[in-house]
Amino acid sequence: MPNYHQAHQLAGQQRRFRWFMSLAACFFAVIFLALGTWVVRGAEDDQLLRSARTYAKAIDSFRAFYTDVIVTPLVGHPWVEVTEHYRDQPGSIPIPATMTLDLAEFMSQRDETIDTRLLSDFPFPQRADRLLTEFDQQALAMMREAGRDEYYRFEMQAGGKALIFATPIRMQPTCTACHNNHPDSPRRDWQVGDVRGIQVVTLPVSQSVLAKSDRFLYLIVFVFLTFVAALLALFFMDTRVRNIVDLLFDRNRELEAATKELKQQQNALDQHAIVSMTDTDGNITYTNQHFRSISGYSDAELIGRNHRIINSGFHPPEMFEQLWQTITSGGVWHGEIKNINKAGDDYWVKATIMPLYDAAGQIDRFISIRTDITQQKQLEQDLKSSNEELYALNATLDEARQAAEAASEAKSAFLANMSHEIRTPMTGIIGMTELALDTELTATQRGYLGVVKSSADALLSILNDILDFSKIDAGKLAISPVETDLKALLTQCLKPAAVLARKKGVSLVLELPESVPDYACVDPVRLRQVLVNICDNAIKFTAEGRVKVSIGWQTGTGDGKGILCLHVYDQGIGIPESQQAHIFDAFSQADSSTTRQFGGTGLGLAITSRLVELMQGRIGLESSVGQGSHFWVELPCEQGRFNQTLYPDQEKTLWLLDTVAENMRTVSSFLIRLGYTCECFTDPDALLSQSKSAFSEPRSYLIQHHLNAEYTGIQVIEQLLAYGVLPKDCMLISDASSSELQQQLQSLQIDRLLTHPPAPAEIQQMLQKQPDNSIELVCHSEGAGLQILLVEDNKVNQRLISTLLQKRHHQVTLAEHGKQAIELCQQHIFDLVLMDMQMPVMGGVEATIKIRELEAQQGRAVMPIYAMTANVLPADKEACFKAGMNGHLGKPVKLTELDAVLETVKRFAVT
Ligand code: ADP
């Protein structure tokens, strides 16, 4: 990073500067100290030299004084002798030389630090033993040869540094006379002025006044302290400077970053926007590249020109007045402007114009930032014209839609009508055929009628399919989920399939585990349709073996939501892989030959898959030819709820017998939830042998009728009764309740028959049923028949339904229309009213409303009223329930459905 590099460089420079300054300070301090010492030493030496000179001069002066003033007058004096032996001769005085020598000796003794010597290279014999030093010889030579008056040298001696200072002793007139005449004189040619010898004074440097004092030390201390203070000041200053530099550097960095940021922003702005600036008069002072390219002018053509240069004249002057007013009063103006470029072409911009201020806070410029919206404007324009076209088209389409809707409604009405019109005669055909089949017939007649019945059934199913498909196709089919007793619904759906399967020698197996909730939010009608269609196909395409229906429940997020899973496995012909992909398409059959062999329209699975789709579910299959198919459906359900009722533990144990383990597991799970203890058997012999030895224990038996080749359920019950088991403790589950079976049960005094697969509530009802000597349920005695009012205008239907009911030992009263029905209801209370919907004089819905009012007025028990009609659309059913009916039976009437209604009513019969 450049900034880091700069900082690093600066820190290095600072370090080097510090070192340099410190070294420079040391260097100058050393120089200063050396100079100081040198100057001080020089002054000291001078001082010492002056002292030595004075000293030598004093001795010289004294010697001159002594020679001239004392000795010279006494020369030749009778009593005073001048001799060098003056110490041995009283009354004599020393000659000047002796006196000087002794004086020097005397002075040296007085002050040990000062050494004064007088010496000569021509000594008298008594001093001939004195040796001359190198200095002495040098001094004598210098004085004689160079004529010097003094000679000195600083020398290092044992006691330290010392000044050796020599002055010449010159021959005076008195001296020459004496020396040249003296017998012991070593030389006799002395001239006045000759250097006889030298006087040497040695002064130690320590004698120096300056050295002795502390001043020099003070000076050094002062210099040192000054140096330290200077150094500290230097460091302090350096730290301050460094801080300031750091601060400056930081500021500089911030400034650089801000500048960079600003540049980037400006660059971004320049890349995107058209920017210009004007002075307060509107004269252009700046334009960016975008501005220049869009306007077609160069900078030279723009700078200084008024902004009006790009005014297209499209906008009214008021708009610019308002703009000017906004920005001159400090506001920001936003808007869309149409400008004109140099070539005379228009372009649109979205502009933001605002003032800029000088340092004094006065508006000094205006900046305008714009984006090119020419294309957008063009698009808007295009859109506007397209919209106008679209509006026109819409109007046409609307008319077409209305026409289509009217056509669709007409089609729906036509379909409903057709359905009703076809169903009514179909009721007659199917019903009468069934009645005829119930009479004694020749084999040929039975054959013919059988064909009529199956053809009519097929026609009806095709009719139903086409009706459903056209409803789904027209989007008319709505799903209406309600909370439904799942187990009751599913078992109910499968009962007719079980009968169908049994007829083909195929067994229908139901696996409905405990994990499936008791209640879920589903559309019961459509769920039934899906399951029945898949099951019917499975049975239809399976020649032998079994069809297994497995119900599952996948728990969702824990809020009760879940997925209801339906699986139908068959062991039938299977579907080739190439055709599996199209199996859910309308009018598609895996193999066109199947139509001939099995019949069908190819609409069933198309309807089923669309219903599943409408219920937000999924459908799929796996199949292999010759092995069978597995169809699965997953339906998301809003709510899954278990029955919270806790049933008390029952005293009786239940022994179940079924050779199909899945069926037995399903029934036993129902029973366990009802509080029963179950013992399950799959082998009839095992059950028989165990119950033979313990028949007296309180226990009930629930026996499946269709067991194996050896046993039927009836046979097992016969054995049980033979062991002493009571008939009231035996219950039979059968796929179908044929009259033969009913007779067999009657003969065994067994009054408990359940149709396969039984619902939990059915089993419970059967178990709680009080023993009855008369046989009820399906086959009622004459006296136990219901009083039924049949409201029906169609003669064929009147005859058909009446016969069906009478054959079931019920008493039928006929009413031609609603009004007649009301009159009859005023006089009688019926166990059941079967009400057609479309009738002359008064329809079924109106009649029901009136009957309900009548009951309310008279405070009578409410009669069960069931619609029995060819009007089978959901809207028709809704109208029936709204009017107060209890149920709805579609025409042509299915016997199983009619029997179920009769059974329900019988159970709650009021008479
Ligand atoms: P259809 O009324 O003809 O049965 P579907 O739509 O119900 O119409 O079925 C379409 C075709 O799918 C059938 O004709 C048959 O070829 C095939 N199919 C449906 N279910 C099965 C099945 N369980 N086993 C074999 N083929 C089946």
Count the E strands.
29
Identify every distinct bound molecule in the structure, by name, code or SMILES: adenosine-5'-diphosphate
Strand order of the largest sheet: 8-7-11-10-9
Low-confidence stretches: 207-211, 772-783
Question: Major sheet: size, sense and barrel closure?
Answer: 5 strands, antiparallel
What percent of residues are in strands?
15-25%
Outline type: elongated
Q: Kindly report the oligomeric state of this protein.
A: single chain
Mean pLDDT: 84
Distance between the termini: 104 Å
Number of helices: 26
Helix-residue proportion: 40-55%
Over the alpha carbons, how many angstroms does the gyration radius reach? 71 Å
Q: Could you say which structural class the secondary elements and strand pairing correspond to? A: alpha/beta
What would you note in describing this structure?
The chain is of the alpha/beta class. It is built from 26 helices and 29 strands. The strands form seven sheets. A five-stranded antiparallel sheet has the order 8-7-11-10-9, with helices on both faces. The chain has a five-stranded mixed sheet with strand order 13-15-16-18-17. Strands 21-20-22-23-24 form a five-stranded parallel sheet, with helices on both faces. The relative contact order is 0.04. Mean pLDDT is 84; it is low at 207-211 and 772-783.
